[in-house]
């Protein structure tokens, strides 16, 4: 299906009086560019052909349905566009407010009150921009594992600025790794390396998506993390941090980002080069029916943990808007 959404961006116009064909020239995101009479329509009726536009639509695979959520005077419904991203709609004439949302990843387009003339055919353009929101990439922690003691240096380059690191980060972390996983730096020992970062985020099409009820969250996490190959202590760290965040909702939408997908949040470089760098981020939001097209179960990859390896996990909460 199509893309995705985040923070609330309302596009509101200026009320202009007169005929519909003379209105909306300045309404951002929604523009009626053609109106003509059609006396064959019933009294009190009108039609509108909607043409939807977004730079993201070019990335939609051929044959996929493009679902648009909309309301006309608070009547909420969904529509599926034709291959040209158009849709024909019958509407009542009179004062009308249009709202459109193409799902996570797009802004919501809301018109001001528009006077739709009786017995007319109208054509309109609806232009969706993408939405970014500022998120806190929470508690990415980095575990290092090696069967032998070794000295290492590790660099993290987040997509945004660090908001916190521990131990203190000064261009790199440099220390000694012991076979029990302990990280020795500046005469102190740490179980892992920690960082936070504020970043801009836009939900995109992913290969997985889950709707998880509150009572199922902990078993779900345990199953997913066990499949990926996290140790008992790593799973405990993950679940005790994210479990309370997820269970504040009656149900949640969850997506996982793994391996190279995590480069959108940060790049990692380590010397000596590990045999494997394993990365897992969890993104979640309170469940919204509009996430339904994005539901797709897919097993997490099984992480390579032999030899010298790096494991990083982290996550974030994103918000969705309502029509």
What does this structure look like?
The structure is a single chain. The protein has two helices and 23 strands. A seven-stranded mixed β-sheet has the order 14-18-12-23-22-20-19, covered by helices on one side. A five-stranded mixed β-sheet has the order 1-9-8-4-5, with no helix packed on it. It has 323 residues and is mainly beta. It starts with 9 loop residues before the first strand and ends in a 6-residue tail after the last strand. It folds into two domains: 10-127, Immunoglobulin-like, CATH 2.60.40; 133-317, no CATH class. 8% of the residues lie in helices and 45% in strands. Helix 1 (217-228) packs antiparallel against helix 2 (232-246). Strand 4 and strand 5 (75-80) form a beta hairpin.
